[in-house]
Structure formats: C-alpha cells, structure tokens
C-alpha cells in the first residue's frame, strides 16, 4: 500500500496555546501519528526541539519527539497572551495553505489549532464567522456539519452559532435533512460504519409531548424521519433530549443529531471535557480540531493541556487511514 501522507497541523493564533500544545503533542505521541506543523518557527516556545522540512512527506523521517515544521513566515514575532494584528493574515494564509496541501494529496488530513476570530476580523478583515465557514469556502461546499466526538459519544448540532431565539426559524426540515445525509455519508466513508444508527433529538422539552410543549415534532420532524427511514436510513426520533444521553441510551446509536448548539455540546463536554474533538463533515477533505479556544490567559506558562489536540490528531489520522483503505478496496 502507498504510504499515507502526513497530517497538516495549522499554527492557529501564535499568541495562544497552539504552539505550546503542538510541541507537547509531538513529544507525547512518540511518532504514532505522522504530522507536521505549519507556522513561523519564531512563534514556538524557546528551546523547542523542531526540524524544518521543505516538503510534507519529509515529516515521516523526522525522529520521534521532534516537531516537523513547514515554515510559513509571519509579519511579526509573537508574545504569548498578546495577539498581534500584524499576524492575522498569516494565520488565515496558513489555514488556506493546509487546505491546499490536503486537497492536492500532499497531506492526508488537516488539524487546526484554535484561532482568535476577533483578531482575524479586526486585523485582516476576515469575512467568516470561524474556521468551519472558511474551510467550506475553500472546499467550495455549500453546507458543512460540525460534529463533536469523543470515545463515548458523537453529537451534531443542526444549528450552531446563533441566538437561541433564532433556532425555531433556522431549524428547518431542509436543514435537518441535509445534516442527516452528510452525517450518515461521512460516518460511512471515514469511520467505516456501514449503516450508521442516528438518533434525532426533538427541539422541544420531552420532544413536544404530543404537542403540549411545542409542535415542530408533529408538524414536520416525524414525517421527515419516516421519509428518510423509507430510503434506508437507520433513524430514531424525535427523541426527548433529556433522556437520550445517559450511558444506556448512548449504546443505541452511533451519533446524536441535535437541534441547537448547547443541546449537543453540553452532554459531550460533561462526559469528556478534555478529549473532545471537533470534526467538520461535508468537506472534500478531512478536518479535525481540538475542542477548546486559544486560552490566551495561560499562553506561555507551560501549563496548557494537549489532550484534545492529541485526540484530534489521532482522529484525523484514523479517518485518513480508513479512507485510504477504502479507496484501495
């Protein structure tokens, strides 16, 4: 079998914990996932053991414990905890460079370190709400899906970063159907789950309780689920959101699709706060990310926890290797 290309890890916000946890991940993972970091070496912690590479494939040959670095020069040095507007465009360019490397086959997947959205907007007129929307544009994709995953649970919020008051208007049959189709496709393609079991959470308390607490479930959710079931999708729901996340219930499905952000993220962050991974479904390439922010308040102190980044790199590599095996069968 042809050697699988390494994973591209973007630098994220240079003044955040991204550089620190990249180094920690390289040390702790001991080479089990071949990856390389794209960024400016000046932004790495002083004394970082790294090797500059010229091509992504060279990452396979870097000794374990050393960080392979594909150099991307930024406008200015970085001071931990203090973001510099001058570096905003560099952060954006690194994301685009990683996406190009994945789409060209030079990297098998990309893992993105956290960005500071306001700095990108104010410093470089970044026109996107965040990573996900920018990657959708780079992948020329209309609809992508955010999935949070850990060893115990996978969850997908159908609506994401909008006000709770806007959810009933944005949570439509068309959006939920597209979310279900994308989720099922990617679980089959990247996780090898032939017939994903998908649980659909109701929008309202107790899934509306027969219309007593809301009617969306009766008005359109039940009909949509029945239609997709007739096509062969393994769906159950609408399920009462308050009873579908305990341990026994989680054994009955492979992923839970929820109506809104907190309905999905509260259970997974309660179950596994440190190891959750953000995965973007529906892209023409694999993208994962640690499920935390830039943590500017602790940047540069040497105390940042690399657990979520390690989980994100592991998941990106697992997805890439499954996809490679599938394409060669």
Describe the structure.
The chain is an alpha/beta fold. The protein has 2 domains: 1-143 and 283-329, Isopropylmalate Dehydrogenase (3-Layer(aba) Sandwich), CATH 3.40.718; 152-271, Isopropylmalate Dehydrogenase (3-Layer(aba) Sandwich). Helices cover 36% and strands 17% of the residues. It is built from 10 helices and 12 strands. The protein has helices spanning 18-29, 88-103, 117-124, 131-138, 167-170, 173-191, 216-230, 247-250, 261-271, 307-327; strands at residues 7-10, 35-39, 50-53, 67-71, 109-112, 145-149, 154-157, 197-201, 234-239, 255-258, 277-281, 287-290. A 12-stranded mixed β-sheet has the order 3-4-2-1-5-12-11-6-7-10-8-9, sandwiched between helices. Helix 2 (88-103) packs across helix 3 (117-124). The chain is globular, with a radius of gyration of 20 Å. It starts with 6 loop residues before the first strand and ends with a helix. The mean pLDDT is 94.
């Amino acid at each position: 079998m042809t050697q699988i290309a390494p994973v591209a890890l973007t630098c994220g916000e240079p003044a955040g914990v991204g550089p620190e946890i990249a180094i920690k991940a390289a040390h702790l993972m001991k080479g089990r996932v071949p990856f390389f970091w794209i960024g400016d070496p000046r932004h790495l912690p002083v004394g970082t053991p790294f090797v500059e590479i010229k091509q992504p494939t060279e990452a396979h040959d870097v000794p374990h414990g050393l960080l392979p670095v594909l150099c991307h020069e930024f406008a200015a040095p970085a001071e931990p905890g203090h973001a510099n507007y001058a570096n905003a465009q560099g952060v954006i360019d690194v994301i685009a460079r990683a996406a190009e490397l994945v789409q060209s086959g030079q990297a098998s997947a990309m893992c993105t370190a956290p960005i500071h959205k306001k700095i990108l907007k104010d410093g470089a007129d970044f026109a996107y709400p965040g990573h996900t929307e920018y990657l959708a544009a780079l992948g020329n994709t209309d609809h992508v899906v955010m999935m949070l995953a850990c060893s115990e649970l996978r969850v997908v919020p159908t609506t994401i970063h909008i006000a709770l008051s806007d959810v009933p208007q944005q949570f439509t049959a068309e959006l939920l159907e597209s979310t279900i189709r994308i989720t099922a496709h990617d679980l089959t393609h990247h996780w090898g789950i032939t017939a994903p079991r998908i649980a659909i959470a109701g929008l309202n308390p107790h899934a509306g309780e027969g219309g007593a607490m809301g009617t969306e479930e009766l008005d359109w959710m039940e009909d949509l689920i029945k239609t997709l079931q007739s096509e062969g999708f393994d769906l159950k729901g609408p399920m009462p959101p308050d009873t579908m996340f305990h341990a026994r219930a989680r054994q009955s499905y492979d992923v839970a699709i929820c109506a809104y952000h907190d309905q999905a993220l509260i259970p997974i962050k309660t179950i596994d706060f440190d190891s959750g991974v953000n995965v973007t479904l529906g892209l023409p390439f694999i993208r994962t990310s640690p499920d935390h922010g830039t943590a500017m308040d602790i940047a540069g102190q040497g105390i940042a926890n690399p657990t979520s980044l390690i989980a994100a790199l592991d998941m990106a590599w697992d997805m890439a290797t499954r996809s490679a095996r599938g394409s060669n069968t």
